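Q: How would the C-alpha cells look for this protein?
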Amino acid sequence: MDFDLETALELAAQHISDGQAELAVLVLRPFADGGAHFGASLKALARLYARLQMPALALGWYECCFALLPHTPDLWLGMARLQLDCGNCDAALVIWNELLERHPLLEAALFYSAWALRHRHPEDAVGRIRLLLHTAAPDSVYARGARALLRNLGRHHGRSCTDGRN
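A: Here is the predicted structure in C-alpha cell form.
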C-alpha cells in the first residue's frame, strides 16, 4: 500500500495513540529509504523514536538528518530536547548555544536553554529570559513560560528576578 508522507504521518500518529508504536515505525520506515520526502521522513522518524522514549534510535535518526539538513533549527531543537530528556543537560546546552550563535533570537532555544541553566547559572538564565521577553510577542507560548520561569527563579534565589524590563 502506497502513502504520501502526510498520510503516513497521520497514520503513524494514530498508531501511536492506539499504543501500536511498532506499526507507526513500519508505516514511516519506507520514507527513510529515499525519494522526494527523504529529509522530512527522517525528521519524522527521529521525532517518533524520541516520543517512544527510544533515545538511541532517535539520536541515530537525528544524526542522519543533520548530515542532510545541517541548518534546520527544528532539528537542533529536537536533538537538544532529546539530550535533556536523556539527562544530558550539558550536551543540550552545547546544542542550544550553537543554535543561538546562528539564530540569537530563536524563542525556543532561549527558553529551553534558560530552563536548563536555571539551577547552575541562574544569572545566565535570567539574561536569556529577559532577552526572550524583550523580543517575543507577549502572547507567545515561550514568553508565557519565560515569565513563569522568571518568577520561579526569583522565589528560589531570594531576590526579585522580575525587577527590570520584561
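The longest helix spans residues 141-156.

The radius of gyration is 18 Å.

Upvote if useful.
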